Input
Amino acid sequence: MTQEKDGSLDGTNTSSPEGDERGEGPANETSGPQKGLGISNLALASLALYHVFATVVTHYHRSIGAALYVVGIAIFHRPLRFLLKRYLADNWRLLNEEAEQARARKAPGTTDYRPLVVLVVSAISLALLNYTNNSRDLDHWIQQWGRAYYDGHYTQLFDSLSWVLIRVLGYIVVPWVATLFMPGERFSSYGLSPRGFFKHLWIYGLLFLIIAPSLVMVSYSEPFQKTYPLYKLAGRSYLDLIVWCVGYALQFFALEVFFRGFMIHPLKDSYGANAIFFMALPYCMIHFRKPVAEALGAVLAGMVLGTLSLRTGSIWCGVLIHVSVAWSMDFLALGQRSAFSKMVWANHRSTRLKLIRGGLRNLGRNRL
Output
């Protein structure tokens, strides 16, 4: 069962006061890496600014941007080593220690069946999502249904919402059903508890502050404005925008439940931090249709969010950062194009007339 961790997220373990008193143990091992590596706050700030600069250049010139990232790794190798060690490697070590303790508590000869169930169900769910997403029959049915009942005004919106529904089914419903056949397991224990949310809220804010400057600068480019929002009619009316934003957020919630909840929490006792790497592989693969920079970035993002999920016992970091970034991208793109509409909903008069006429026609048929 997943519980909120008492240890800090900087790779230190505060659960062993004896180790603190002796000046030994994990807490002392990571207490001074910044000093040992000669890392200053100025170096970390320079790294953040360079990241923003390279991201913006990559959006306009991929080859030059890629070269800047390679050069940046060489220039900022010491700050990068510090960040990777303190916030990833040290936490992975602690997760592996917890896994060893969990395995030691089990009776000899006991087999943990959860990895088998989770990995097989995950593979089946991802396969079904892939083929369902490419189903032309489903798209055709949605378009016909939308035209028949809503005069075609919201056909694209229903199409987008069907995409959300399919992901909720694949990412949440299928794993939840599988959990019903796993004795002693509760789906809610896979990082769904909001406990400790405000305690770790600073992490979400820090991650968003790192990403936000790049989003603002890139939003001035024409490719960005043409790409977002993914639902192209989001700016047509308030109804379109609100429904799309809610559905988009629900999709990201489902994604985090699957990758940062179901795929790693049941595996942590058997594999420790390696559960994160098992998850990072398919998480990268679902980005294969996107630009190569985003697909490669998904590897690091998956490892960071997976580490946060296991160390905090919650998936809400991933949910919040995903939703806030996605909404920001949509709002920035609409704002740059001045595409926000003042209409409450689209073509409401013709739609209402059609529904009223259809209702009267059906009433007349029933009387006959």
Q: What stands out?
A: DSSP finds 17 helices and no strands in the chain. Residues 14-36, 349-360, 362-368 have pLDDT under 50 and may be disordered. The chain has two domains: 17-110, 112-367. The radius of gyration is 24 Å.
